[in-house]
Design a protein that fits this description.
There is one protein chain. By secondary structure, the protein is mostly helical. α12 packs parallel to α18 and α16 crosses α18. The chain contains 18 helices and no strands. The relative contact order is 0.16.
Length: 411
């Protein structure tokens, strides 16, 4: 029987959180979120093994991200109603099972089913982030959330590096099997170290889900954050879900390990997430959201203008662009989460569920639209799509709240 202490959310926020706990939470979010991106550098070799076209393969990341949005919407709110520690452990075990199932898929249809289920339970990452916000003292909440989100973001980006490298030498099935074992090890560490959390909501599951709409209507800041981050996610996913296919084709003819290595460039940008959290703590998150959207727009406009370069120069442009837009998107995400976590401490799981549902709807749209743009308008179409989405996000963040159409009627 576990000896983990009981811990009330309000009491937890009054004491500091150890560096070891922050590291454990960061690793947990990283492994959870990485699970939905392992397939992206593998799409080129998956097509050969599963006998699928490039357009059909685009449904693998699309369904994974739709599953993630589904899981956030219908499962993440449970963190307010149940012991968040138990929710995390159950989801981690289910995630390991889904990864094993992916490694055994023998057809595209089975891979698509496994991908959707994997996305649903990979939302364990978004149960860990509200746990970090609850354990952190208010004065350090932005920094702690930023540190944990660094783990999540590095997991997303480095997953492509690991996936491409392992698949190149051991095969794509080995990649999913290794990932499943890593999640099981993470679950064991969480079971030993993570404290229990007292529920902050005591309503029925139906009322819990209905309260998501209430929160959406109640907080204009939540609506603006969700829509702005969702648009940035369209840009993010359009790039990463098409990169491997683009590099696999002429004129590059590069393998999965090279496509995955671009995650290193993005990881350099993600390392700035704790800095974004510190700035948000000191000066407020609003300026950081604008800076993040602006950097993303700048990066994709640059990639659009560089799309006609020779292959060697184009690869350098892709690497630099990945650093800049990942820095922008991750900084905006940290700041948006800081905004929503400060709205209502008793509803953090649900607030996070609304924000992340919008984000991963944007991810799935970006994947689908990005693959369509690549098929019809080539790489220029992908980068133009991403630039337009980033422009929309920046416009939303620059819109003054007093005149924003998202504000409640009568205000």
């Amino acid at each position: 029987m576990s000896t983990a202490p009981n811990l009330h959310a309000h009491d937890a926020s009054q004491s500091d959180i150890s560096r070891g706990m922050v590291l454990l939470l960061a690793l947990g979010t990283g492994l959870g979120a990485a699970s939905i991106y392992y397939s992206q550098p593998l799409l080129g070799i998956l097509g050969t093994d599963l006998h699928a076209s490039d357009q059909a393969l685009g449904w693998i990341p699309t369904l994974t991200q739709l599953g993630y949005a589904f899981g956030i919407l219908f499962l993440a709110p449970l963190g307010d109603r149940h012991d968040r520690r138990r929710v995390i452990l159950v989801k981690a075990l289910l995630l390991a099972a889904a990864l094993f199932a992916s490694s055994l898929a023998s057809s595209l249809a089975l891979m698509l089913v496994a991908s959707f289920v994997l996305g649903v339970v990979a939302t364990v990452a978004q149960d860990i982030v509200p746990a970090a916000a609850t354990l952190a003292p208010p004065a350090r909440r932005g920094h702690v959330v930023g540190s944990v989100m660094t783990g999540l973001l590095l997991g997303i980006l480095l997953s492509r590096v690991a996936s491409g490298f392992i698949a190149e030498y051991l095969g794509w099935r080995a990649m999913f099997g290794i990932a499943a074992v890593a999640v099981l090890v993470m679950a064991a560490a969480m079971q030993r170290k993570l404290p229990r959390f007292k529920p902050t909501a005591h309503m029925s599951y139906g009322r819990l889900l209905a309260s998501l709409l209430t929160l959406w209507r109640q907080y204009p800041a939540l609506r603006r954050a969700t829509l702005a981050q969702g648009l940035l996610s369209v840009a993010f996913s359009a790039f990463w879900s098409t990169l491997a296919v683009m590099l696999h084709d002429a004129p590059f003819h590069l393998g999965s390990s090279v496509a995955g290595a671009f995650g290193l460039a993005g990881a350099a940008g993600a390392l700035a997430a704790p800095l974004a959290g510190r700035v948000a703590d000191r000066h407020g998150p609003e300026p950081v959201t604008r800076l993040g959207a602006g950097l993303t727009l700048l990066a994709f406009v640059g990639l659009f203008l560089c799309s006609g370069l020779q292959p060697h120069a184009a690869l350098w442009a892709l690497g630099i662009g990945a650093v800049v837009f990942d820095l922008g998107i991750q900084s905006a995400l940290i700041s948006h989460q800081t905004i929503v976590f400060g709205l209502d401490h008793a509803s953090r799981s649900r607030l996070n569920a609304v924000l992340l549902t919008g984000m991963f709807i944007g991810m799935s749209l970006g994947s689908a639209l990005g693959n369509a743009a690549l098929a019809h308008w080539h790489w220029q179409g992908v980068t133009l799509l991403a630039a337009v989405a980033a422009l929309g996000s920046l416009a939303l963040r620059l819109w003054r709240p007093a005149t924003c159409p998202l504000a409640p009627a009568g205000r």
